[in-house]
Amino acid sequence: MFLKKTKSLLFHAAVCSALAAPSFGQQTPVNIDVNLNTVKAPMKPIWAFFGYDEPNYTYMKDGKKLLTEIAQFSKVPVYVRAHSLLVTGDGEAALKWGSTNAYTEDAQGNPVYDWTIVDKIFDTYIERGMKPIAQVGFMPQALSTKPDPYRHHWKPGDDYNDIYLGWAYPPKDYKKWAELVYQWVKHSVERYGKKEVESWYWELWNEPNISYWKGTMEEYIKLYDYTADAVKRALPTAKVGGPEVTGPGWDKSRVWMRAFFDHVTKGKNYATGKIGSPIDVITYHAKGAPKLVDGHVQMNMGTQLRDLDKGFEIVASYPTLKKLPIIIGESDPEGCAACSEDVSPQNAYRNGTMYSSYTAASFARKYELAEARGVNLLGAVSWSFEFEDQAWFRGFRDLATNGVDKPVLNVFRMFGMMEGNRVDVKQNLAYDYKKVRDESVRGEADINGLASKSQTSAAVMVWNYHDDNVPAPDATVKVSVQGLPQQKMMLYHYRIDKENSNSYEVWKSMGSPKQPSAEQIRQLEKAGQLQLLTSPEWIMPKDGKTVVEMQLPRQGVSLLHFKW
């Protein structure tokens, strides 16, 4: 069972405190040693990237609320990626579906462009200081080589393969497709300005190595050439890339990646006839694989990290591509955001703290994997947003439910406080990024940390993660920090666990109401915010050192934020 937490204690020059032994008997503390003077690399905000299938949720009530919150806790512009920005339809929002009607044709087959809904989506981002990763796709009905049937009406529990209809096919006219792309980029420059659009990323399609693309690999490469050429003709300084394949751990995915990279570096361009294709950013996806084991959820972080690492390895093998920025276009514990817990019980990790601890532990390893391969990881998109007008806590892979933040969103609030440089962290357990990549977390818990330091602050994120979501005793964790300035400073200790920053547990304590009252919603909204474990404390480090000892529950995450 989870045991009552003891309060965080500080050990420094003038204070000598004792920690009461927890009731299950004194454990050997996990020692996490942070050296703020040992800089590893800049603390890139690789977490400030989000995405979702349903673009029309963007400007709906809860979508706008969530985007506002995300923008507010990030000190850097957040990038947002959404599917279906060129899909034909009336703009109705539905699961795994969206449309903008950007392209239709008149009776004579002439193009008709309508940017109304696309603008509504991008305006919502720009108003909040966010930036699009403009996904060029999917195929408008008038251009599809198989236009009917075109729209699906998928719901959780239906066959996933039923969604890949006319929107997933190649164009019947590549030049008309290229003109559509050209007009879109040109319109964006006219509406938002050259400088703004230069800061965006344009990328083609989604997961073309599986059923999202009903053409061949060569047809995708041809489409990329026409797309990249059109983007650059409209704005030569625009940033464009691909191939947005999924699962580099699979043989098929590696074949796709290498074929694409071979083509853009030395192949004959389908659109221009020249050698090579424009590429400014590399994109691919990496997913984990949870399952049910003896009635509980067992995650598989190792599968996701192996996907990441194999992609990094492939990119690093191309000298002209190795230093290009990489965006992991979807980087998640598994593949289907809209597959709810009620029909996919292996997804029961999503409402509670397992999702938040997984996120903390996995993002920390993304930095290390990229560093080890010598590649330039710019961002990792959490394919997780919100699902409008759905049952409370239904178990979608989302950041909020009915406008109430879930525990996982608070990890990103923690990341938003980590600035400056990433610094050295050591601990006395066996897990490092290689062990998690190769074995996942199946033995001891992964109790570890990520730390940063800026001119006026330092932050240490600590997690207690395990792939198996089963009860376990709290861990005694001793965080030793050196390299602090020799001056009085404030320490804030934030926590995500069963009792803190956890709207899901509060909702369950209410009896899991299907229609919470207005007062209950206010309570849930408050519970969904990031909360302090203890009151802020003034500390005075001795010789730049201080120690914080805590009881950290399984799947819990703490952030120690020092400000001076």
UniProtKB/TrEMBL annotation:
Alphabetical GO biological process terms: carbohydrate metabolic process
Secretion signal span: 1-20
Keywords: Glycosidase, Hydrolase, Signal
Glycosyl hydrolases family 39 N-terminal catalytic domain ranges (all copies): 32-527
Domain of life: Bacteria
Family stated for the protein in its record: Belongs to the glycosyl hydrolase 39 family.
Identification of the protein by name: Beta-xylosidase
Record organism: Dyadobacter luteus
